[in-house]
Amino acid sequence: MPKLALLGGTPVRTRPFARWPVFDDREKEALVEVLESGSWGGYNPVVRRFEAAFAAFHNVPFAASASNGTVTLEGALLAAGIKPGDEVIVPPISFIATATAVLRAGAVPVFADIGRDYNFDPLRVAEALTPRSRAMIPVHFAGRPADMDNLSAIARGYNLAVIEDAAHAHGATWNNRSAGSFGHLASFSFQQSKNLTAGEGGILIGSNEELIENARSIFNQGRRTGGAWYEHVRLGTNQRLTAWQAAVLLTQLERLPGQLEIRARNAARLNHLLKSLEFVELPPSDARVTRHSYYLYMIRLKPEKLPGVSKDAFLAALAAEGISGAGSYPRPLYEHKVFEQYPFVRMSCPEAEAMCRESFWVSHEVMLASPPDLDDFARALEKIATSAGELAEYSKQDRAVR
Ligand SMILES: Cc1ncc(COP(=O)(O)O)c(C=O)c1O
User: Around 82, how many Cα atoms within 13 Å sit in the side-chain half-sphere?
Assistant: First the structure.
């Protein structure tokens, strides 16, 4: 039995995975063009060109860009008229911004559980409805679209605003329709780790021109499109995307379809390689997920097959074997200290809690790798499982130390 690298053995690999972000002279030329234009802020026409291209890529007519995918969520709630005291249903598994955006609007996050696909379970969302419910924020977690058929039906029945958090889901589709085209507004992030990036950045897209104009105005000091520089019609702030970001994003958008294809191909290969590992559970397949953008590739460890092995010890062993890019959430959002300071509602969320104990992800750089790199990944998983006894010992000591 080969010795785990964590315990002094030889790692499965020492070479790094693919570099992220990917760029070449095209990004450099786009940046030089902005430089030489002398128009570096949010009013350079390249910003509008990027907005139009991104909206078109998702088959919606309108978009309003902003400086990141947190303020787009906050702006979406304000643009949709969410008021203090309103309830907004959110999943407990997401990045913190999905829920804190609700707090920052003065509204009350209501946490409804996820399913085995790591997305909102529509039944749990329905249970969370009250007369104060005004909106829901489905997150397309990992790049897998949430069940927008059932979630949209609930929203229609209860007159809720739907704000899709599509920060993971650039180019994903549900029933051949773009994630981000179902809700009243959809928010995307272009932060460094995302499948489309300019280091930072965000955008709202949608089919309702008035909502997008509200959001654009919020991001631009309450100005209105076509209004004067010193005309401020609503409470806004300055969250404009810069020309630098838009120029890079336009170029990166050209790369996206090819990268989506590589990730999908690699995911199919990984699914095949991991299918036979009895300690691994992959998310259930669903024919309605017509394109998963694989921002993250999700793996669940079956605790009964790895007795005594903590997820943290497993991840430490994986990193030691040279597999970078694996990570997980330590706890559901409602367990973060920030929620001790604000009102929120927490429905029973056993799936979210099990996910934090048992599941981890591999990030999308790994999904851009070549087939032999993926084989290394599968080999490392297998190697760790074969030494599960030693790893259980390590987990015990690791827990004793903490
Ligand atoms: C699901 C989700 N929503 C919102 C955000 C916030 O985006 P940003 O980092 O651009 O503010 C992120 C990630 O960063 C995210 O993963």
Answer: 34
| pLDDT tens digits, one per residue of 370-386 | 888 899 999 999 999 89
User: Which whole number is the average pLDDT over 134-148?
Assistant: 98
Q: Is 191 a catalytic residue?
A: yes
Instruction: Return d(Cα 67, Cα 203) in angstroms, integer.
Output: 8
Q: Is the pLDDT of residue 1 over 80?
A: no
Angle between helix 243-275 and helix 25-37 axes, rounded to 10 deg:
160
- Per the annotation, the verdict on 255 as an active-site residue is no
First to last CA, the chain: 29
* Ligand 1 pocket by Cβ (under 6 Å): 68-70, 94-95, 97-98, 139, 165, 167-168, 189, 191, 202
Strand partners for 64: 204
Our measurement of the distance from residue 170's CA atom to the centroid of its chain's CA atoms, rounded to an integer in Å, reads 9
Determine the Cα–Cα distance for residues 180 and 218; give it in Å rounded to an integer: 20
Q: Which residues pair with 299 in a beta bridge?
A: 360
Domains of the chain listed by start with CATH number = 25-252 (3.40.640.10), 256-401 (3.90.1150.10)
Q: Which of 51, 137, 29 is nearest to 91 (CA)?
A: 137
Of the CA atoms within 13 Å of residue 266, those in its CB half-sphere come to 29
Q: How far apart are CA 281 and CA 382, in angstroms?
A: 14
Q: What is the pTM of this model?
A: 0.97
More reliable by pLDDT, 2 or 338: 338
Q: Quick one: tokens of 233?
A: 């019609």
- Give residue 18's pLDDT: 82
List, for residues 297-345, the tens digit of each pLDDT value.
Answer: 999 999 999 999 999 999 999 999 999 889 999 999 999 999 999 999 9
